[in-house]
Task: inverse folding
């Protein structure tokens, strides 16, 4: 299971894993059963080349690469009735997608697992966490899961949501992800992913940020540019203030020379740093809804934490959870 604490500002190979979801012919090859649906985003992002680059770069840096494919047998439909479970299962059933042993279920020629990679048992819905993925992550000591592949609003999103709920840090790689439509892709990348995970990066940014964690380093420096989890530019770091006397550490971020507005960004909101770019785990689109326009105080921080469980009479003030 993932551990708690402030996230590293780099992707430590000892604690990071890359999961490539459904890099198979039915999604990525022009002869695949879903190609007419996926080709617009796959071509737009050059997903095949980006996934190959991601896997090669991660391996070279010592980051484990896991593959999460789908494969359906006759028993899945005849015995389990998966075609009745959901719209996506019906779609795959009617179009004979990902049939076990078929061309469509095979890995794309350019994205083949290599010795040392991990190939997961097939997922039968949209959540790869419901396979043996978690067992492998725990064995590897993974705390940060990096997601890429197909498709943005289904398997990638469902897996990211579940991983976050389990306590993993989750990063999505926008240019190594495709979808069945541009609208689905855009909604995932710009609206959902920035709130589900702690960052949306591109492959090059992720690969550049792979490095062993440096104990005690703040990771961010004056002059760095701060970006939200939606890749929106927030401003430039003027000062890095370390924690002291109950006040958490924070960044003083200049939002613009003309407006002369400052943000006070908690250091523990910084998820990682790539070059001179620092990323925080909140979208720029919603940062105005946060109380970051004043320097933090010990009192304000204590108020955000709330009361300890021992001092709470009822979780929902007037009600408690129902006992079974």
Result:
């Amino acid at each position: 299971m993932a551990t708690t604490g402030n996230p590293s500002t780099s992707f430590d190979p000892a604690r990071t894993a890359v999961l490539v979801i459904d890099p198979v012919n039915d999604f990525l090859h022009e002869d695949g059963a879903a190609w007419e649906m996926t080709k617009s985003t796959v071509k737009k992002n050059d997903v095949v080349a980006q996934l190959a680059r991601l896997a090669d770069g991660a391996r070279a840096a010592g980051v484990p690469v896991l593959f999460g494919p789908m494969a359906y047998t006759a028993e899945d439909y005849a015995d389990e009735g998966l075609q009745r479970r959901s719209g996506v299962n019906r779609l795959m059933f009617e179009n004979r997608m990902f049939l076990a042993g078929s061309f469509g279920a095979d890995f794309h020629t350019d994205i083949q697992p290599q010795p040392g990679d991990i190939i997961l048992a097939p997922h039968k819905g949209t959540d790869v966490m419901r396979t043996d993925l978690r067992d492998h992550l725990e064995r590897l000591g993974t705390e940060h899961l990096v997601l890429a592949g197909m498709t943005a609003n289904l398997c990638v999103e469902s897996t990211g949501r579940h991983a976050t709920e389990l306590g993993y840090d989750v990063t999505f790689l926008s240019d190594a992800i495709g979808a069945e439509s541009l609208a689905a892709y855009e909604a995932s990348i710009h609206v959902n992913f920035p709130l589900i995970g702690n960052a949306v990066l591109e492959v090059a940014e992720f690969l550049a940020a792979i490095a062993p964690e440096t104990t005690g380093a703040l990771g961010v420096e004056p002059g760095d540019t701060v970006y939200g989890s939606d890749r929106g530019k927030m401003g430039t770091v003027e000062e890095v203030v370390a924690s002291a006397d109950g006040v958490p550490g924070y960044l003083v971020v200049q939002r613009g020379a003309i407006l002369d507005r400052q943000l006070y960004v908690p250091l523990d909101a910084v998820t990682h740093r790539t070059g001179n770019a620092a990323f925080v785990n909140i979208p720029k689109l919603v940062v105005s809804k946060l109380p970051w326009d004043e320097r933090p105080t010990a009192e304000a921080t204590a108020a955000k934490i709330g009361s300890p469980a021992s001092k709470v009479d009822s979780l929902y003030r007037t009600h408690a959870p129902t006992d079974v």
